[in-house]
Amino acid sequence: MDDKLELIIEAIIFSSDHPVTIKELLSVLNEYTYKDIRTALENLTLRYQTLKRSFHLVEVAEGYQFRTKKEFSPYVQKLYLSSPYKLSTAAMETLAIIAYRQPISKLEIENIRGVDCSHTIKVLVEKGLVRVVGRKDIIGRPLLYGTTRRFLEVFGLKDISLLPEVEDITKSDTSAKTGLESKEEREHERID
Amino acid sequence: MNDTKYVVKLDEFEGPLDLLLYLIHKNEVDIFDIPIFIITQQFLDYLDSIYSQGLEPNPEFLYMASVLVHIKSKMLIQSPAETEEEDPRTEIIAPLLDYLYVKELSKTLDSLDMLYRDTFPRQPGSFLQEILQNTEREVDADLTRLMEAFKRITGGAPHVKISVRPPKWTVKEKFEEILSLRNTGTLTLGHLFSISSCLEEFLVFFVALLEVIFNGLASVCEDNGEIEIKFN
């Protein structure tokens, strides 16, 4: 194991203002291979996990960054923000639709939510979480929206394929009632 | 009385589907067997409560109300024996289920560690930010940014009356012209604007520039708000 490499990488990530990519590390560490760096990063990640400190090393948007752990957020937040950074229910729902069903047009989003979403989409674009990714090849050529790299950074995702899977209650279980009850309850009913 | 309009977020509901789901849940009924009479009544009661506060419900709520009433009337005329016919309620079940699923997706997304809410990175020092701002950075260019730059530059240009006539400038000409400027030092989008006689000419320049970039002959950078054209 190359301790020196781990320390060099640690220093670079520590001093960076953005998630550091392996590509960036490679560009300054000519004498090491991709595999060396990858291994060192994995070891470093593991090391911080076992250290039990208030922060850890996470892989986001294809880069590595030190981030504080969730349990300390109330304290850290107080220092930087007057009010917690959060998204409204409308924004979160719209973002979820775009994230899971991208690329998607405004009309398609509105059909799902049953309400006008122009303002919400505008807010999400301003926040840099979604962007126009193209146009749909139908009459009117409506704009299609998708998530950005910033989205991955904000939600701590390495890439979009790592969005947590959600069981589709509407397809997997047609005997579902409102879907608001617990799974056990539904299973119990089926047995009855 | 003054005419100031207050935007009140009175609806705890994101929309008609959200309200419907709430009613279904509250009445503890099956989403596949909605008691349409009860639910429609409660839905209309909710709209009444909005009216009674001197407000107008969103049109989406009115539309859903009409859908519900329509389903209700269809069910009234449908005799129970005719099981062949499709249940009129099917119309709202699919969107409800889809919305329910989206709520689930939204909850999942919300449960992730969100930057500046649940987790914080190291903050760059102000000195570092200054240095970074002064260095040129490749534009994370997309169409919207380019369009914004175009609007910013042309903001002061006089309004041009459009009439159809043979084009004075062609993209091909301007393409060559841009390339001929490659040895005249720093070339910026602002410079192209200043050598254009009118908005129309600049427009052709702009399209030609996109063509130049598309052909890989140059790239654009943003430096202190100036769009710089760099030849390869």
Walk me through the topology.
The complex is a heterodimer of chains A (192) and B (232).
Chain A: H1 3-15, E1 20-21, H2 22-28, H3 34-51, E2 55-60, E3 63-68, H4 73-80, H5 89-101, E4 104-105, H6 106-113, H7 118-126, E5 130-135, E6 143-147, H8 149-154, H9 169-172, H10 183-191
Antiparallel strand pairs in A: 1-3, 2-3, 4-6, 5-6
Chain B: H1 16-26, H2 36-52, H3 59-77, H4 90-111, H5 126-134, E1 137-138, H6 143-154, H7 171-180, E2 187-188, H8 189-194, H9 199-214, E3 218-223, E4 226-231
Antiparallel strand pairs in B: 1-3, 2-4, 3-4
Helix pairs in contact in B: 1-4, 2-3, 7-9
Structure description:
The complex is a heterodimer of chains A (192) and B (232). By secondary structure, chain A is α+β, with helices and mostly antiparallel strands. Chain A contains 10 helices and 6 strands, in the order αβααββααβααββααα. Chain A has 2 domains: 3-73, Arc Repressor Mutant, subunit A, CATH 1.10.10.10; 86-192, Arc Repressor Mutant, subunit A. In chain A, the strands form 2 sheets. Chain A has a 3-stranded antiparallel beta sheet. The longest helix of chain A has 18 residues, at 34-51. Mean pLDDT of chain A is 85; it is low at 172-192. Chain B is of the alpha+beta class. Chain B folds into 2 domains: 16-111, no CATH class; 136-231, no CATH class. Chain B contains 9 helices and 4 strands, in the order H-H-H-H-H-E-H-H-E-H-H-E-E. Chain B has a 4-stranded antiparallel beta sheet with strand order 1-3-4-2. In chain B, strand 3 (218-223) and strand 4 form a beta hairpin. Mean pLDDT of chain B is 81; it is low at 1-9. The interface between A and B is large, with 55 and 49 residues.
